[in-house]
Amino acid sequence: MKRSERALAWLFVGPALLVIGLVVVFPLAYSLWLSFTDVNLLRATGPALELWGMRVPLFHWIGARNYTQVLADPLYWDSLWRTLYFVAAFVAEAALVGFGMALVLNERFPGRPLLRSLLLVPWSLSRIVVGLLWIGILDFEFGALNGLLLRAGLVDGAIAFFKEGWSALNVLVSVYMWNQAPFATLLLLAGMQSIPTELYMAAEVDGAGYWQRLRYVTLPALRGILFLVLVVSTVNGFLMLDLIYILTMGGPGNETTTISWLGFQTAFQFFKFGPGTAILYTLTVLCLLLTVVYHKIVFRRLEAAEL
């Protein structure tokens, strides 16, 4: 009976494990192996197979040479510091704006269901659509925002939002926050509504004001949700690629080139798949390290605050 139950269990679980292996495990293992190899589809020399008149390059194992070359590249470090600023600014804005909107939508007022529905519109849009939408708003020649500012007499001439690297990078942060903050709001709002009202009533009986209830009741109860929001926002910030592709293409120059864009550009524009995957795996390691840091900060500090 035990053997038949185990066989039946594997029969039900097996297809799901097979799909996970093909869709998740195999691409991860293949890309990790690729980061230790050397292959360039544009190179006319090197080991290759001749199949039906076509030359198929072979992957040549070179060990950690891709990683050493990447870490010695000044462009990589410039992109890394730019990525860290982008992620820090995006996570701070998304978390604060999301938390503020969740506090507002958690209150009772007329029109709250409509506002909750409208909240999901930016998040439900594809980021390609979001990029095209904001091009129409921020464009130097025909942008709607420049038109409104000029008609109102607030500026003397059109503003070139993407002319300088610093302003273009901050525009990317703001546009991405506009797209992703509703998701943080949704998570935080769900967490706030799961907090028992008895806790707030007991705090009011003890004389706690609004800010004290927020600090000692709401925030400790939301620590798991806050951890999830920080981790998801950080990973999304590191992996953000499509808005850069639509809005700036990494420019002007390399002023908005992040690690994800550098890895994409290296692999799929210059066809250097080994260095490209090595760049992206350094990003994976950084995401894992920051997840551990977030876990320690969020849980330990909130537990200390409860004590």
**SS class:** mainly alpha
- E-strand count: 4
Q: Main β-sheet, in a few words?
A: 2 strands, antiparallel
The N- and C-terminal alpha carbons lie at a distance of 51 Å
Mean pLDDT equals 85
Spatially, the strands of the biggest sheet line up as: 1-4
SSE string, helices as H and strands as E? HEEEEHHHHHHHHHHHH
Radius of gyration: 25 Å
The share of residues in extended strands comes to under 5%
Number of helices: 13
Fraction in helix: over 70%
Residue runs with pLDDT of under 50 for 5 or more positions: none
Overall spatial form: globular
Could you please describe the fold and organization of this structure?
The termini are far apart. This protein has 13 helices and four strands. The chain is mostly helical. α3 (74-105) runs parallel beside α7. The chain is globular. The strands form two sheets. The chain has a two-stranded antiparallel sheet.
Supply the key terms.
mainly alpha; globular; 4% strand; two-stranded antiparallel ribbon; 4 strands; 307 residues
Helix-strand blueprint:
Elements (H helix, E strand, L loop, with lengths): L1 H33 L2 E2 L9 E4 L2 E4 L2 E2 L3 H7 L2 H32 L6 H13 L2 H12 L5 H9 L12 H29 L3 H9 L4 H12 L1 H17 L2 H6 L11 H10 L4 H34 L1
Antiparallel strand pairs: 1-4, 2-3
Helix pairs in contact: 2-13, 3-7, 3-10, 4-7, 7-10, 10-13, 12-13
